[in-house]
Amino acid sequence: MNTAIHIAKQIIERVIREGDAISSLKLQKLLYYSHGWTLALEGDGLFSEYIEAWKDGPVHSVYREFSRFSASGIINDDTLQLNNDPILDAVVMTYGGLLASMLRNQTHRESPWLDWYDGTMRQAIPHEAIRNFFLEQRDAPSFPIHQKFLDTWLGTKYGAVYIDTTHFGITDEEYTQTRKELGLA
User: Fold this and answer.
1) pLDDT tens string 3-53
2) Cys-Cys crosslink for 58: which of 32, 86, 151, 158, Cβ 3.0 to 4.6 Å?
3) Is 122's pLDDT higher than 70?
4) pLDDT digits (tens, 9 = 90+) for 41-96
5) How far is CA 81 from CA 3, 36, 78, 85, in A?
6) Could you tell me the strand order of the sheet in which 51-54 lies?
7) To 5 degrees, how large is the angle CA 49–CA 157–CA 57?
8) Residue 53: φ, ψ to 5°
9) For the chain, which residues make up each domain, given as ranges?
C-alpha cells in the first residue's frame, strides 16, 4: 500500500500534466474520489489513514503538507514517474477539470460526508462507509459525474479511446458486455 503523500503527488503530477492547476482543496477531493473508487473497484483503499469529514468536505491528513499553497495551485517540486493506475487516471480526467468549489459541493451531497460531518472538524469517516457509497455508485450511479467516471475508467483500463462523456470508441455491444462482466450493469 502506498503512502497518502505518494498518491497525492501522483494526483498533482497528473493534474499538472493535464494543464490544470490544483489547489489544496481540489487535491483533498481528488484524494477522496481516488480512495473511494479504489475501495469499490479493487477492494482495498489507496492508504490506511482515515479521511475526515470537515466543513469543506472530506479531508486527508496530507492537508498539512499542501495547505501552504495558495488557491491558485500546488507546485510539484518532485520529478515523478507516473505509476500505471487507471483509477487515478480516470479520477483526474473526470473530476480534475472541475473547480474545487464544485467538487466540495458534490461531496456535500454524498453520504460519507453527510453521515459523518457533525459540525466539527476531524470526524473520521470509516473506510467501510466510503466503500459502501462507491459500491452503490458503481452499481447504480445516482450522480451523472460518477457515471462519467465509470465510463472513463473503463476506457483507461481497457485502452479504449474516450470520445465524449457517454460513449467510447467501441461498439455498444462491447461496451454493454464489458460493463456486465465487471458487474456494472
Assistant:
1) 888 899 999 999 988 888 899 999 999 999 999 999 999 999 999 999 999
2) 32
3) yes
4) 999 999 999 999 999 999 988 887 777 776 667 776 666 677 888 999 999 999 99
5) 16, 23, 10, 12
6) 57-59, 51-54, 123-125
7) 35
8) -90, 110
9) 4-136
4: its cell numbers: 497518502
The beta strand positions in the chain, using DSSP E, are 51-54, 57-59, 123-125
C-alpha cell at 118: 457533525
Distance CA 36, CA 156 (A): 18
**Cα–Cα distance for residue pair 5/50, rounded to 1 Å:** 13
Average pLDDT over residues 137-149: 90
- Taken in order 98, 124, 8, 14, the sign of the CA dihedral is negative
CB-based contacts of 58, cutoff 8 Å, min separation 6: 28, 29, 31, 32, 51, 52, 107, 112, 113, 125
**40/151 Cα distance (integer angstroms):** 15
